[in-house]
Amino acid sequence: MWNYSDKVFEHFMNPRNVGELENADGVGEVGSMACGDALRLSFKLGDNGCIAEAKFQTFGCGSAIASSSVLTEMVKGKTLEEAAQITNEDIAEELDGLPREKMHCSVMGREALEAAMTDYFKRQGRPMPCNLLTQTTVLCHCFQVTKDTVKDAIFNHRLETIEDVTHFTKAGGGCGDCHHDLGDLLRDCWDKIENGDVPEPTADSSLVQLGDMPAAPVVEHAPEDAEIVGRIQELMLNDISVALRNDGGDIEFVKYQANRVYVRLTGNCAACLKSETTLKGYVEAQLREFISEEIVVIEVNR
């Protein structure tokens, strides 16, 4: 159960500015209903050039509704330059905080605002001013990786999958809640690549990793244990890991030695006070049932 602030509940139960503006000056759409989250934000400017009205329509969870609601209140009375300074962190702060696993809802709000402003300038026949695109958006809150960092990695290294992005930037390597946003960003970047809107990467760029990227865990085992290690990895990949990801966590196989399976918990599981119960009551029980009754699971590098 997530811990929500009173403000989140208030904006969820009594959302402000729901609907769509007629003759809006700017309309932005982000996300996809097929993927479970979508937001449409519209605004209208007053005679003084400030945002006079803002409305939203969203398909998503309570955090998405609350984030969208409070954002429409935050932008009212601001110029576009002032509204552009609002970050997804500001949205969360205005709600007295969001659970880390729900921060992607504030990201969606910030991106909808940017999309609406882009639409406004497109209608004016003008490009979006650079000073309105200066804010960085944190996509991966587990590792504090920004949208700009991920975009640069995709363009520079021609990354094609979320796994590639995680390998180069760490984004998506924790709870996994940012995978939807990473998928959208990959599609957007590849549209630009295929249209020739970005330069070709250098010849060896696909071989370069970020300097602070930790080495992948070494899978250790004796040659004679190859068969049992393969079965353990298959069970963890296809069953155990899938179950843990449903709760925002995950597990990594580190090594096998003399019936001892060394693992590393990630995402929500790494910080959970009941991680020992997860390891013994679920992971170890599954391995003993399907692999060997003598297996003991040991957590490392918590």
Task: Give the biggest beta sheet.
Answer: 3 strands, antiparallel
User: How does CATH name the architecture of the largest domain?
Assistant: Alpha-Beta Complex
Give helix and strand order, one letter per element, not per position: HEEEHHHHEEHHHHEEHHE
How far apart lie the N and C ends?
A: 23 Å
Can you list the strand order of the major beta sheet? 1-2-3
The CATH class assignment of the largest domain is: Alpha Beta
Please supply descriptive tags for the structure shown above:
single chain; 302 residues; alpha+beta; GMP Synthetase, Chain A, domain 3; 3-stranded mixed beta sheet; 8 strands; 43% helix
What does this structure look like?
- The structure is a single chain.
- The chain is of the alpha+beta class.
- It has 3 domains: 135 residues, Sufe protein. Chain: A, CATH 3.90.1010.10; 76 residues, BFD-like [2Fe-2S]-binding domain (Arc Repressor Mutant, subunit A), CATH 1.10.10; 77 residues, Fe-S cluster assembly (FSCA) (GMP Synthetase, Chain A, domain 3, 2-Layer Sandwich), CATH 3.30.300.130.
- It is built from 11 helices and 8 strands.
- Helix 1 packs across helix 2 and helix 6 packs across helix 8.
- The longest helix has 21 residues.
- The protein starts with 5 loop residues before the first helix and ends with a strand.
- About 6% of the residues have low confidence.
